[in-house]
Amino acid sequence: MYPVLWRLPLPAWALPLSPALVVLAFVGVLLVLLGWRYRSTDLTLIGGLAALGGSGAAIAFKGQLTTLTELPVTSYGAMLCLALLVGWYLTMTLGQRDGLPRDLLASCFFVAALSGFVGARALYVITNWGDITSLGDAVNARRGGLTGYGALVGGFLGSLWFLQRRKQSIWTWADVVTPSLALGVVVVRLGCYLLGSDFGQPLGAGAPEWLKRLGTFPHWPANIFDGTGAPAWVLHVSRGLIALDAEHSLPVHPTELYEALAGMGLVALCVVGRRWQRGQLFCAWIFAYGTVRWVIDAWRDDPEQGRVGPYLALHHYLPLGLLGLGLAWAAGPAEVISRPRARRAAQALGLLPAIVAYWLLVPPAFAPAQSVQVSISQWIGWVTALLGAVAFRWLLVGTAVRAAPAASVRGPVDATEPSGPGVSASAERRKKPHQRRSHRAG
What is the mean pLDDT, run by run of 10 residues, along the chain of 442 residues? Predict the structure, then answer.
């Protein structure tokens, strides 16, 4: 694992903080003036935050000095920055291709990124409230302390607020940004793996050797984060599973890689589903990602994810959750399939994972069942997946009503059938005889 990619050497200078922060505030004012001059909302927002933050911090740290040292560039931080850069490029490219103005895209992306960061940190603080002892602990995110679902919820709420002020639809923006979200899951989870966070439970003795090698995290050298070791190593030492001088943790499920692989599948979903409009792609991704988190997080073991609720048998709660998601799939995303037989087959297959999960997880006779608490990320994933399926169905019905009001009250919704003179043969066959005659007569 490579928690620190490289270190930036800096001269060992003792600098007063206030003058440096005043310079930051002055640069922010210049950005505000440039944004006003060129009518660029994103530059204005960035400059305003820099001006306010720099001036406030200059007052707070008046008279204090700081000594420059080498700056470590962590793998997680580098991958997070890469995800933002790739997300920016994809969002701007796809949004302008869909006819959205650049200024709107840039400003909304900045608002979503900022509110997403706040949401990511806020959910981490909520789930780890017992470890927070001061305001400094709450705002210190230097060593991670960010949650994916907090970023997603925060970014969505920030975008909703911004777009409502601009009298724009949230759904068009959501479809544009969904490919960036899907690719961001892959990139960020690779960063988590390099750092060693978000790891899984210990592997069984019969696990393949290649999987054990992937899931083994080291005790870091003394020059990396004070030599504390990867989070899995720290947890196993604290539980007495390995000795303090052990060089590696126990082999665990590399759940970061599991989610990265699932994220690649979600990227493929975005490629296939780009033809869906008005939020359907976003809702389908929310449903799929929530399902992925519900399953994978059942094997996560890092204590920072937080757990709530009663202890439940794994072979009960996981299949029941999958059953609910299967029903949501049948009522929501599966309805986009136009052929009735294929649609019914897909709806039936949506219930199969619950049956398979129960069959695989049920303990042998007289063996004790494994009881666990559901993590907060699982609860959020399950609820948002259900909401995504409901919203997908709602948007699908709304699209069909606008396209063909009479067709929306008969049978399953077919979002792929056009309306007007070019109506498909399948839609023509569903019409009543007198309707077909009147159509030909007209």
Answer: 74 76 86 79 76 81 74 82 91 88 86 87 78 64 71 90 85 90 93 89 90 91 75 91 90 94 91 78 92 91 80 86 93 86 91 90 73 86 93 78 49 44 43 46 41
C-alpha separations of 128 from 55, 124, 155, 381, 401 in Å: 31, 6, 21, 18, 46
**CB within 8 Å of 41: residues ≥ 6 apart:** 35, 103, 106, 107
How do beta strands 71-74 and 65-67 pair? unpaired
- Domain assignment of residue 41, yes or no: yes
**C-alpha 161, offset from chain centre:** 19
Reduced to 3 states, what is the DSSP secondary structure of residue 308? strand
Predicted local confidence at residue 226, as pLDDT: 67
Quick one: which of 408, 220, 382, 215 has its CA closest to 298? 382
Q: Give domain status of residue 18, yes or no.
A: yes
- Domain coverage including residue 18: 8-69
Number of structural domains the chain divides into: 1
Residue 393 lies in a domain: no
Instruction: Give phi and psi for 424, each to the nearest 5.
Output: -75, 165
Q: DSSP 3-state assignment of 312? A: strand
Q: What is the maximum span of the chain, computed from C-alpha positions, in angstroms?
A: 89
Residue 286's SS3 state is: helix
Distance separating alpha carbons of residues 370 and 312, to the nearest angstrom: 8
The span from the CA of 380 to the CA of 149, in Å, is 7
pLDDT at 402: 56
User: Are the CB atoms for 247 and 217 separated by under 8 Å?
Assistant: no
Secondary structure of residue 99 in the 3-state scheme: coil
Q: With contact defined as beta carbons under 8 Å apart, do 154 and 124 qualify? A: no
Q: Is residue 157 part of a domain?
A: no
pLDDT at 187: 93
According to the model, what pLDDT value does residue 427 have? 45
Q: What is the pTM of this model?
A: 0.78
Yes or no: say if 271 and 196 are a contact pair by the CB < 8 Å rule: no
The pLDDT value given to residue 415: 45
Name the residue among 299, 314, 313, 297 with its Cα closest to residue 252: 299
